[in-house]
Hints:
two-stranded antiparallel sheet; 32% helix; alpha/beta; 5-stranded parallel beta sheet
Amino acid sequence: xxxxxxxxxxxxxxxxxxxxxxxxxxxxxxxxxxxxxxxxxxxxxxxxxxxxxxxxxxxxxxxxxxxxxxxxxxxxxxxxxxxxxxxxxxxxxxxxxxxxxxxxxxxxxxxxxxxxxxxxxxxxxxxxxxxxxxxxxxxxxxxxxxxxxxxxxxxxxxxxxxxxxxxxxxxxxxxxxxxxxxxxxxxxxxxxxxxxxxxxxxxxxx
Length: 206
């Protein structure tokens, strides 16, 4: 059975982001996927990469377990709000601590390719063969996000993080959330519940 991992990235478990994730998970379950949750607000870890990439910082048990969940998932779905044109600090800290060189990507020529000139290296994704969906909400209207913020979250989190590491990504964005009525929020939950999808490729643990 293909499996999905729903990552809930809002620090408040009563948030609309969590409700969207739970609605999406219900639809996936009905579609026949095995669904697990990863609630980042429940994890115990230091979100600060203290020495950058200069030295190893051992992973806490919760982060080790989270890596296994990502490795064994066919689909990883991320749910969080967009704050300051980016993900919450909780999500950013989780990414910086877990998506490290040697696990999420490496630098060097692809396997089997001829070596490049000395000193050159290319990023090689290590999490390829998995699908991802990013569901985020923001108070800004869509035109403002595109023109003023230049789709900053999608550039950084979708392109420079998930796709960089090999995921095939689909996105769903809810704009003007602050102005949304209860009816509009109910429609959004329904939309996520029927947004069922099967991973486009089959894979196992990497």
